[in-house]
Design goal:
With about 100 residues, the protein is of the alpha+beta class. The protein has one domain. About 40% of the residues lie in helices and about 20% in strands. Strands 1-2-4-3 form a four-stranded antiparallel β-sheet. A hairpin with a 2-residue loop joins β3 and β4. The chain is globular and about 30 Å long. The model has no long low-confidence stretch (mean pLDDT about 95).
Length: about 100
């Protein structure tokens, strides 16, 4: 998918933020770990996944273009249900 399509899917599912209980197959019982594992499975890296943090928000070190190239709509819905947002070309979430 393109970055525009990915952004549209984030907007489409924005009303499902923090509905982790609706994720059908959990890779972890913890929503933050679920996000980290899912993103690592889709975009492999040897870098730490949290690129920065400020107050109660973290930004994830996952390249949006690489992610969009391998992700599908279901992946985006899962991330949103875990509390991930796509904002200003970055993935971020409150902790």
């Amino acid at each position: 998918m393109t970055l525009d399509e990915m952004e549209a899917f984030f907007e489409k599912y924005e009303d499902e933020h923090y509905q982790f209980d609706r994720v059908p197959i959990k890779i972890s019982a913890r929503r933050d770990l679920h996000v980290f594992i899912l993103m690592d499975r889709l975009v492999r890296s040897n870098h730490v996944i949290v690129s920065s943090a400020e107050h109660d928000e973290i930004w994830l070190d996952v390249d949006p273009e690489e992610f969009a190239a391998v992700a599908n709509e279901g992946h985006i819905q899962e991330l949103v249900r875990c509390g991930v947002r796509y904002d200003e070309d970055n993935f971020c979430m409150f902790v």
